[in-house]
Design a protein that fits this description.
By secondary structure, this protein is mainly alpha-helical. Helices cover about 45% and strands about 0% of the residues.
Length: about 240
């Protein structure tokens, strides 16, 4: 995910992320992730409240370390924190989606198959909190320190092993499920409309050339056929 010497692999990773997060960019949020939109400021629809509202201090440090590792500052982009990706995590987890307002939680809860999707009896916020606590305990047992104090290589290895389900978190949270949860929120923080807290100044959209919420592009299909289409992206606040 991170390569401080060669940014091209990171660019490929982000472009791949766009494929899974395309609905996030165009609709503001995926159907599954319907976080409450925060109060808007006058600039780019960014949250007027830039401080944390839900994340605990230890979780704040973890999220900042995570988004800076997955989106390091280089010639392609600012760091994840500079893009407010951490603020998106806070707003999403503290909003309706994170609190499970539309999630059925009455069971029965059994281990499902991969094609059945999410099966845990936890809200997104509860999954994040429990997974983060489990990861912190794992890192302190294995490395004698927290995730944010690990080297870049160690962070990368931990994330890849969680993705593969090779790490057993001490509190029983499935590491692959927890990693998928973090990756989903990272993708959304990068490419959702800035009104939801992340993608500051539409930096994520500008990186990949996404035009934003413009819907009147039919006339441009012929006009720009086989030609670069370069336009200043528009957010929800720009057209509302």
């Amino acid at each position: 995910m991170q390569d401080n010497h060669e940014p091209q692999p990171r660019r490929k990773f982000l472009i791949h992320s766009v494929t899974s997060a395309a609905g996030v960019a165009s609709l503001g949020l995926t159907q599954e992730t319907q976080a409450q939109a925060p109060e808007k400021s006058q600039e780019n629809g960014q949250s007027a409240l830039q401080g944390y509202l839900w994340l605990r201090p230890n979780e704040q440090g973890f999220v900042e370390s995570l988004v800076n590792h997955m989106c390091p500052a280089d010639r392609l982009s600012p760091s994840g924190v500079d893009m407010n990706l951490n603020i998106y995590f806070d707003r999403a987890l503290g909003g309706d989606w994170g609190q499970g307002n539309r999630l059925y939680l009455k069971g029965p809860f059994v281990k499902g198959t991969p094609n059945q999707g999410y099966q845990l009896a936890l809200t997104p916020a509860a999954l994040f909190r429990a997974g983060t606590e489990g990861l912190d305990s794992y890192c302190k047992t294995q490395f004698k320190t927290s995730f944010e104090s690990l080297s870049s290589k160690q962070k990368e290895n931990v994330l890849k092993e969680m993705q593969a389900g090779k790490i057993e978190l001490p509190n029983g949270i499935p590491s692959e499920t927890y990693f998928s949860h973090l990756l989903q929120m990272f993708n959304e923080a990068m490419f959702a409309d800035p009104i939801y807290g992340g993608n500051k100044a539409k930096m994520g959209w500008k990186m990949i050339g996404y035009p934003g919420v413009n819907t009147n592009h039919r006339q441009n299909i012929v006009k720009f056929k086989n030609k670069p289409y370069i336009v200043e992206p528009k957010s929800i606040s720009d057209v509302s």
